[in-house]
Amino acid sequence: MNIAADLPRIEAIVIGASAGGVEALLTLFGSLRAGFVLPIIVVLHLPDDRRSHLAEVFSRRVALPVMEASDKLEIKAGTLYFATPGYHLSVEEDRSLSLSLEERLHHSRPSIDFLFESAADVYGPTLAAVLLTGANHDGARGLAKVKRYGGLTIVQDPDDAQVDTMPKAALKIHQPDHILPIHGIGRLLVELERIAC
User: Fold this and answer.
1) Identified catalytic residue from 90, 111, 138, 160
2) Catalytic residue at 18?
3) Predicted TM-score (pTM) of this structure
4) In a domain, 63, yes or no
5) Residue 159 catalytic?
């Protein structure tokens, strides 16, 4: 199968994960070369009673610049952003990041739905959204909105996920553009970046 066939031109990638997400993301980002040009914004569910070390851990393991998201931070090409524990993360019209303290969604703050829905509003058909392993239903509704707004939707194959609840919840709501194992998602992101260059 040629996964690169008919791929759209993408300006940004959003990714959501929960249980099993660290391992999945390390595998996924291992596919990306230095100089990868697309911004990637990630919500990974973490306890919000302690500081996140994701940026430090991933900066040692991936080829991209890695940052923890902060309020009003401009989204830059080729940078990987992780949501801050305890705050919802959204994308603003001026393509900056915003942190907020609205009620939890699916018992989560940050919520994947919150990020995906705001990014769909801003990027529309130039957004790619990826939903990975996880133990709740967060991200399913947001992924469906990305699809309605013309964006590209990708779900990790439930058989490949460490915890299949989150991918299965998404598949119950809509049919994504791609259902792939984690290595296949990595290859797809490489193709999306190649088209964007």
Assistant:
1) 138
2) yes
3) 0.95
4) yes
5) no
